[in-house]
Design brief:
two-stranded parallel sheet
Length: about 80
């Protein structure tokens, strides 16, 4: 919330600023290194440790961090793209 208010102030002062909210972010496609404190990684580790998995009625989607960063960098360079997502 605080960071979004700071972005709003930056916009009011004339800076071009956008907020991007990607979904679940996974490790990169080269090394697979991933933040182990988030919910999805803890769920996966717990399932492996217990040798059990929940019967989820939904799919879990995680996008590799390098894909997310490339996409945000690409979108941020597009004129007029801010606020369209």
């Amino acid at each position: 919330w605080v960071s979004e208010k700071l972005v709003q102030i930056a916009r009011e002062r004339g800076l071009r600023a956008c907020i991007y909210r990607p979904g679940e972010i996974a490790g990169d496609t080269v090394h697979g290194i991933w933040e182990m404190k988030d919910l999805l990684s803890r769920l996966i580790v717990g399932c492996v440790q217990m040798q059990k998995a929940p019967d989820l009625k939904t799919r879990l989607y995680a996008v590799p961090v390098d894909y997310v960063s490339d996409a945000i960098a690409h979108i941020s360079r597009q004129e007029g793209a801010c606020g369209l997502a």
